[in-house]
Amino acid sequence: MKKTFINNEIWILTFGGAFQRANVYTQNYPEKTRTAFRKALREEVEKIVKDYYSVQVSEKEHIKHIKSIVSFSEQLKIEGEIIPINFGVAQKMLNLYLKYLWCLEELTHMPPHFPVDRVIQEEFNKIAKLNNLPTQEVKSWTQFKNASNYGAVIEFAKTIRNGIDEFKQLSLAELELKLFDRR
């Protein structure tokens, strides 16, 4: 009962974080359609996340999972409507849900990545400037159509991590959590 409650609360936060500013509902869909859409996405993500409970999922496999969420949304018909989400929204949803599960110690392995958004990109740039490292243009995560912009942010995070001694021992998930905690 308690786990179900916490999982429902996590999903409220996950959808809020993934759908904020993303204009997922570009049309005026009825609430019944929106609810059914979120329910189907949640079930699909929870099915995917089962892999993360038992093994350390590789970065390559993780990106495949994000793409599969995009594909699922493009094929999902709710009340005759398709509400597709792009790569940016899918990565934010999966990465945010994994982050919450990991922080609650539900996962034995760390997520391979972190939720990419404007705030973390700006934080990486601040750290880069303070340490005389190159910066990167901040891209709108809500506009990521494929893995390329997302991958560039992940690679930039690795550059930051590897270029600063206090971060070298951290995973990407730990680095983001450390920087998030500073805000």
How would you explain this protein's 3D organization?
With 183 residues, this protein is mainly alpha-helical. 64% of the residues lie in helices and 0% in strands. It has helices spanning 2-19, 31-54, 59-75, 87-103, 118-130, 147-163, 172-182. Helix 1 (2-19) packs antiparallel against helix 4 (87-103), helix 2 (31-54) packs antiparallel against helix 3 and helix 5 (118-130) runs parallel beside helix 6. The longest helix is centred in the first third of the chain and has 24 residues, at 31-54. The two termini are 33 Å apart. The model has no long low-confidence stretch (mean pLDDT 93).
Which terms summarize this structure?
mainly alpha, single chain, about 180 residues
In a few lines, what is going on in this structure?
Helix content is 64%, strand content 0%.
Tell me the span between the first and last alpha carbons.
Answer: 33 Å
Helix content: 55-70%
Low-confidence stretches at least 5 residues in length (pLDDT < 50)?
none
Mean pLDDT: 93
Shape descriptor: globular
Largest sheet: none
- Tally of helical segments: 7
Q: Report Rg.
A: 17 Å
* Number of beta strands: 0
Structural class estimated from helices and strands: mainly alpha
Fraction in beta strands: under 5%
Would you list the SSEs in sequence order as H and E?
Answer: HHHHHHH
Oligomer designation: single chain
Write the layout of secondary structure elements.
Layout: H1 2-19, H2 31-54, H3 59-75, H4 87-103, H5 118-130, H6 147-163, H7 172-182
